[in-house]
Structures are given as structure tokens and as C-alpha cells.
Amino acid sequence: MTLRNKQIVIAVTGGIAAYKTAQLVREVQAEGAQVRVVMTASATSFVAAKTFQALSGSPVAITDNGLFDQAGMDHITLARWADLIVIAPASANSIAKLIHGEADELLYAMCLAHEGQVAIAPAMNQQMWSNVATQENINGLRNRGFLIWGPADGAQACGEVGPGRMLEVSELLQLVLSRFENTAFAGQHIVITAGPTHEAIDPVRYIGNRSSGKMGFALAEAALAAGARVTLVAGPTEQICSPRIHVIHVETAAEMHLAVFQQLDDCDLFIACAAVADYRVANIAAEKIKKHSEHLSLELEPTEDILRDVKQAQPKLFCVGFAAETEHTIEYARDKLVRKKLDMIIANQVGSSEQGFSSDYNAVEILTADSQESIARMRKTALAPKILDAIHQQLLNRKENSNVRYLKKSHST
Ligand code: PMT
């Protein structure tokens, strides 16, 4: 029961996905948490407050009416009580109100008064989600430290297909658990690379790849949640992360190499998730290349291998690589593990839109010199904490083994 003694407010706004939130209340409670439900007035037209009252075993707060506080200050009482507020579903309207700090309903007033984290699980029509107003609001909330969980892509209640579905209850539960689960990397400095690199051909063109940065950013968030100080060296990407993560933006492999090496002094763990270009153009054209002939040849030269160089420079540093392969995934990944002298490699099969490059989903094989673990396809945000768990377990095993070796040695002398 990971959530024992945790106090969680589940806040419901007006959206058809509210019916799923009833199950979320059950599942969060089953993990040992105490749950209080807060609803907006419009949410009650989708699911009755009595449903949530019966499930949570507590009165549901819709207005300040002294249910939780004799002085009629429920929003303050709940804001102080909550270890975490989860707004699910979060409608476009509620997101707009949150960014403006409105307080015309108990739910919004409570969020304003809450000092801890607020997570929101957006749910709306795909056009409403893609609308620039909603996107600006979401990015603004993310920059203020709100956790944005989802939305998922797929069939919608309105009949359209696209991004805007609320995440499934099981996915939301995993995300709630990940907020409390572990302090495995407390006080440690983790350096992560993410995204693609762009290698210039001329002032307007570059060689790049399809990496979106989603996997690396999810790892950075998971590392932060596990107590680490995180430095994320990111190639060109649209991803946004918590302001508590130190992001260094780079464009080329050479810049990524330099930025990583500047972070190595006090680094405890290095995770190379970036899809770094293996080659760059040897002679970058100073002016835009004009179309003079049918054929154009570019001379390429190898880029710096960041991961190999880091391991060479710091052999004792635990280094994790990624291997994106379209075939012979395990075989090629194992080859990279050995050649780059890595401690662990995460192999992912790429080449379809279902997982890997650009997708929200991934499935991986975690390989070390003497182990192999499969993790089935899931959202990158859910996968990232599992990868960190596997790394943590390896670090613990190593510590235990070196203690045993030390004890044996001192016993024999
Ligand atoms: O960004 P997303 O859209 O979420 O997609 C995630 C991902 C598919 C990009 C990610 O999961 C992944 O697999 N990243 C590694 C991609 C890759 O092609 O790796 P590679 O086989 O070229 O390189 C092996 C390892 O060496 C990687 O850890 C890589 O970061 C590192 N490397 C490679 C070349 C180089 N010059 N320097 C490096 O550090």
C-alpha cells in the first residue's frame, strides 16, 4: 500500500470522463490513501456528488459550506490537508480558470491556496485541446510547476479522433503512485540527454532524426520525483518540463558533448537517451546551397560519441545507454553494451508509429552484462519510473556485491 497515510484531493470538473474518476477514487483508496472529492457545479451534471460521497466515504465539497471546517473555510482546510491535488478530468474551461488564478468556485480557490503539487488530467475535444489558447494555458501551468498528465490520443465521446482523451484510470494511478513512491535517488545528481541533434548542412538545412525528446523528458521527471537533482541536456525539442529540472538546450552533437562534460564533476548517474547524429557535414556551407545540378554529395565525418567518451573519462560512473533498433534489437543492443563498456542498455524496437521515436508509448528490454528484463508497451511517463527502478536495483546489487567482496577479502587476510 504505497499511499498509506497520504491525503489526496481528487477534484472533478465538468466533462464526460468524470465517470472514470469514480474508479480512480476507488483505486487510490485501495493503495491506502485518504481521499476527499471536490467537484465544480458543472461536474455534478455528469456524475452525482452522491456517487463520489459513497465511494470516498466523505462528504463531497462543491461550495464552501463548512462540511470540512466549522468556520466555512473548506477551500483552505482542503488545501492544507492535501498532499496532492489531482484534477481529473480537467476541462478546457477549468484549465483557463487555473492559469488566470480565478477563485469563483471552491475547487479553484483550493488550488490557489494549496502550497504543494497540483496534477491535472486534461479531457476535451481534440480541437479544443489543440487550440492555441488551451496550449498556451497548459504550457503556462506547466511552467508554474503543475503536473500535466496526458491527454491520451484516440476515439473521443464526441465521435472525433485525436488527442484529448483523459488518461486511463490505471495510468493515472501509476502517476499518483510515482509522486510518492520513492526517494531512491535522493541527493544524487543525474545527467540525462534527450531529443535529437541537428547537424547543419548550410544556414537553412540540417541532418536530423525523428526523436521528440519525450522519453528523455519523462526520465528527467521520474528522476526528479525520485529525489534527484536533474540536469537535462536536450537537443531541439518542443517538450517542456518542471522548472525544477536544469535544462541545457543544445543543437549539435558537439554542443551536447561539451554540455555533458561540463556536468560530469559531481554526476552520480548518466543516462544517454538522446538520438545523437552519428555523422555531421564536414564542410558546412556558409551560404544556402543552390540547386545547380541533379546530384549533390555531402561529405560526412563522425560526430563525438558522447556516451563512449563519458564512460572512458569516468569508468566508475554508472552509464546507461539506449539502443533504437529496427531489427535484431537485443543482439545489436548487447553489442553496444559491450563495445561502449556500459553498465546498462535500454533496447527499444523502433520503426512503427506505435512506439519508440515520437510516440507517447514505448516498450523496452533492459539489458546488463548478466540480466535481461522486458517491460511491455506503456506510456513513456509510466515507463520512465520503471527504468529508474531497474537502475536503482542494479546500483543496490553492486553495493551488496562489493560489500561481500570486501568482507571476504578482510576475512582471508
Ligand atoms: O525522443 P523520443 O521520440 O521519445 O524517442 C526516444 C528514443 C527512441 C530516441 C530513445 O528511446 C532511444 O532509443 N534513444 C537512443 C537512440 C539511438 O539511436 O541510439 P544509438 O543506437 O544511435 O546510440 C546508442 C547510445 O549511444 C545511445 O544511448 C545514444 O544516446 C548514445 N550516443 C550515440 C551516438 C553519439 N554520437 N553519442 C552518443 O552518446
Tell me about this structure.
- The chain is α/β, with parallel strands linked by helices.
- Helix content is 36%, strand content 23%.
- The chain has two domains: 7-178, Rossmann fold (3-Layer(aba) Sandwich), CATH 3.40.50.1950; 189-410, CoaB-like (Rossmann fold, 3-Layer(aba) Sandwich), CATH 3.40.50.
- It contains 13 helices and 19 strands.
- Helix 4 (92-99) crosses helix 7 and helix 9 (214-225) packs across helix 13.
- The chain starts with 6 loop residues before the first strand and ends with a helix.
- Bound molecules: ligand PMT.
- Ligand PMT binds at residues 193, 195, 211-216, 253, 272-276, 278, 303-307, 321-324, 336, 348, 350, 356-358.
Radius of gyration: 24 Å
Q: Averaged pLDDT, please?
A: 93
Strand count, sense and barrel status of the largest sheet are:
8 strands, mixed
What level of helicity do the residues show?
Answer: 25-40%
Instruction: Give, in spatial order, the strands making up the sheet with the most strands.
Output: 12-11-8-13-16-17-18-19
